[in-house]
């Protein structure tokens, strides 16, 4: 990869890493997965911004969006890790975040 392409990739990776450090439990597998898989296409939402049920709906919507766009969907294990992380830090998590 040369020139502008390399700058874009490096810039994207820097943005992902930068966002990950603002996430709760940023070093956890769930946060890392969230940053790596969700943050590559759009800005990450604060996990506390939605309830657990709202995250369920959002992840389902994104699964369909990824299919339509030809992106590799999350595996069953990845989705479980992601939802576990988002549920643990959701608005209604009961102060566990």
List the SSEs and their pairings.
Blueprint lengths: L2 H18 L8 H10 L13 H18 L6 H13 L9
Helix pairs in contact: 1-2, 2-4, 3-4
What does the model show?
- There is one protein chain.
- This protein has 97 residues and is an all-alpha fold.
- It has one domain (3-88).
- The chain contains four helices and no strands.
- It has helices at residues 3-20, 29-38, 52-69, 76-88.
- The radius of gyration is 14 Å and the shape is globular.
- The N and C termini lie far apart (40 Å).
- Residues 5-20 have low confidence and may be disordered.
Helix content: 55-70%
Overall radius of gyration: 14 Å
Q: Which structural category fits the helices and strands? A: mainly alpha
Strand content: under 5%
Q: What's the end-to-end separation, in Å?
A: 40 Å
Main sheet summary: none
SS element count, helices: 4
Number of strands: 0
Query: What is the chain-wise order of helices and strands?
Result: HHHH
Number of domains: 1
Low-confidence stretches: 5-20
Average pLDDT number = 83
Overall shape: it is globular
What would a concise description of this structure say?
By secondary structure, the protein is mainly alpha-helical. It has 4 helices and no strands. The longest helix has 18 residues.
